[in-house]
Design brief:
Elements lengths: L1 H17 L8 H25 L24 H16 L8 H19 L3 H4 L2 H20 L7 H19 L3
Helix pairs in contact: 1-2, 3-4, 3-6, 3-7, 4-6, 6-7
Length: 176
């Protein structure tokens, strides 16, 4: 919260300099303006993470409801929401979860089918939800390729994926 206050103050100070009457050019005035701009840039760069969406990463669990709705319906919004939902479940699975390997194999097959079908359509491939979902699919598929289906995702990768899932959900709600 304090960073946000500093950010606002720095932006106001920087914008106030922009509306001043032009003064005679001298080195001291120029350096003062540059220093104000640099301080604003530093405060903005430090405040940006504070303004970013903070996602709470749920603890991994061995209990889940195994989905029965694998495959695509060939309607983009419904398929993207379904694949995202299955990926959220997979991201939250802990080691030793029941049917984890079967779940992972079905999910990887569904992810490959989703990407190979929808990337052919320029109107879909240009959507922010598709590009973010494509990135998430690459992360999860890469984990499965490197570590197999029985090993859960590490915490750092899970946090990144949950942030991407939130962005995908937000984009899908806006029909983007």
């Amino acid at each position: 919260m304090m960073r946000t206050v500093y950010l606002c103050m720095a932006l106001l100070a920087g914008s106030a300099v922009a509306f001043e009457a032009p003064a005679p050019a001298n080195r001291r005035a120029f350096l003062a303006k540059v220093a104000t701009g640099a301080a604003s840039a530093v405060l903005v760069s430090q405040a940006a993470p504070a303004l970013a969406l903070e996602i709470e990463v749920p603890t991994q669990s061995t209990s889940y409801t195994y989905p029965e709705d694998w495959g695509l319906s060939y309607e983009y919004n419904a398929d993207a929401a379904k694949v995202r939902g299955h990926m959220v479940i997979a991201t939250g699975l802990a080691k030793g979860s029941e049917n984890m390997e079967t779940f992972g194999k079905n999910l990887k097959k569904e992810m490959i089918e989703f990407v190979s079908y929808y990337r052919r359509f320029p109107k879909v491939a240009g959507k922010p939800s598709f590009s973010t979902l494509y990135t998430s699919i690459n992360v999860l598929a890469g984990h499965y390729t490197s570590y197999g289906f029985k090993y859960p995702l590490p915490e750092k990768r899970r946090k990144r994926l949950y942030q991407e899932y939130a962005e995908i959900d937000k984009s899908l709600r806006r029909n983007r």
